Amino acid sequence: MGILITIFQLPIIILNFFGFIIAGIWLLVIGQWSSVIAGILTVIAASFLLSIALLPGMIIGAPGVYFANRRVTIGVYFFGFLASVYTYAVITVWCGGVTIYFLRDAPSHAFWPLLVWSYGIATSPWTYMAQKEQSVTAFLAAFFTQAAFIVMMVCVALGLDLLSAMQVFVLVIAAGVIFHMRVLAEAHRSGSLLTGTQ
């Protein structure tokens, strides 16, 4: 995980601090006002909407704590896996929806600022929730959302069409599920699941 963070740290910092602002200004200059307004409104509503969308995942994962208290490892991993898949599926649907919405009719001169704008809109709610929750699982979700989107943008830059690049996004997100399960296994071994803290 440390190597992945090192690889993606600089691109994430640059995109998080400068990408959203620069893309917004660029879009305003080229007359894409509606995309800027839609993006701002989406970001404002996103954390609330995504919190609601994530509730079923918490319900799905709740039996895992029950099984942890009874030392039933298979139950912990089974429900933890289901909850993780659900969470990362929400991330995928959200990011895919944002990307398609902003790029579906994008003129060629607006493609790149709209793609960077989409990155900001798609990833900022997850970053906000990770900062708010201060948990390892929330941090992992935010990190893999950002990393997957960056990989998708690199694929597009290298000539891959957007649909194929989004399939690569899903592969990176799948790696997030694997890392989440590693965190779950460590939490189970350490006994921190007994208090429901993970």
Short description:
The protein has 198 residues and is mostly helical. The chain is 86% helix and 0% strand. It has one domain (2-195).
Task: For this entry, give a set of tags.
single chain; mainly alpha; 198 residues
Q: How would you portray this structure in words?
A:
The protein is an all-alpha fold and 198 residues long. It has one domain. Helix content is 86%, strand content 0%. The protein is built from 6 helices and no strands. The chain is elongated, with a radius of gyration of 18 Å. The model has no long low-confidence stretch (mean pLDDT 87).
Task: Output the radius of gyration.
Answer: 18 Å
Quaternary organisation of the protein chains: single chain
Any low-confidence stretches, pLDDT <50, length ≥5?
none
How many strands? 0
Order of helices and strands: HHHHHH
User: What is the helical fraction, as a range of percent?
Assistant: over 70%
Shape: elongated
Number of helices: 6
- Strand residue content: under 5%
Could you give the distance between the termini? Answer: 18 Å
- Class by alpha and beta content: mainly alpha
For the largest beta-sheet, the strand count, sense and barrel status come to: none
Topology:
Layout: H1 2-29, H2 33-69, H3 73-103, H4 111-133, H5 136-157, H6 162-190
Helix pairs in contact: 1-4, 1-5, 2-3, 2-4, 3-4, 3-6, 4-5, 5-6
